[in-house]
Amino acid sequence: MADIIGNKNAKNFSENVPFANNGNFHVKGANHYDWGMKDRLSRIFNPKTGKTVMLAFDHGYFMGPTSGLERLDLLIPRLANYADCLMGTRGAIRSSVPPTYNKAIALRASSGSSVLQDDLSRESMVVDMEDAIKMNASAIAIQTFIGADGQKETIEALNRAINLGLRYSIPTMGVAAVGKEMERNTSFFLLATRMLAEFGAQLVKTYYCKDFEKVAAACPVPLVVAGGKKLPEKDALTLAYNSIQGGAAGVDMGRNIFQSEYPEEMIQAVNKVVHEGFTDQEAYQFFQHLTN
Ligand code: 5RP
């Protein structure tokens, strides 16, 4: 292992230089993957724009019913049409998402804690890859807690998923969760996202942070940005806009869509930012136009 003492901090990210190894494939770092992996990634990332709007509704797996997610069977049909990919648990998807939607699925496959505990960082892989195959998942999602008590077990879960995913050409989305002792700062996300990519995750979910363009440049696979807690719609659209401008390949938003008073209008406005190059202001005007 390289000596930690005396290690020089990274500083030359060449953030304005496009990723150099993409060939003619639209997903970062995926040019040399096999056909099945590329097909699944192309269901998540729109080949025309290279980007994705993921709708996250996996919160119930550790929180139970929360605001906006009381009735998945009623909510998802309103929003699915505007999402490139649905991120949820197998229980939620099997029970409440009609298979006729034929949407890309990012299947939440790690679990192990609940809101009744103080430490949420201990998760392992709980979904069999065979079941992910049966659900025709386009990716499986494993949460990792770099720097937290559960680091080792979540890294093992992620690598287990990646090993199995490589066997069946199913991408793994590493989710860079932030442990309760960790700060949401640039150095944490530089570390966590790069570690997940180097383990072999084919896409990484992260949070937006200062100097996000450095985080995106240093991560050789696509980043999708989580929405986080509910913000005013204008601010959530700015978050989406800054993420895309900073080099994200999409967003994986939950509460900022389904907790909006106008979730259908909000997800359409997010699409304008992600896929159509709208600025945050233009997207907010579009949102206001739809809601007035
Ligand atoms: C963290 C997740 C959740 O899906 C995600 O954070 C929820 O989305 P949002 O923060 O936008 O409500 O992967 O476990």
TrEMBL record:
Keywords: Acyltransferase, Transferase. It holds the Pfam family DeoC. It is an enzyme of class 2 (transferase). GO terms for molecular function: acyltransferase activity. SMART domains: DeoC (SM01133). Its EC number is 2.3.1.245. The keyword Ribosomal protein does not apply. SUPFAM superfamilies: Aldolase. The keyword Transferase applies. Coiled coil: none annotated. This is 3-hydroxy-5-phosphonooxypentane-2,4-dione thiolase. It comes from Bacillus salipaludis.
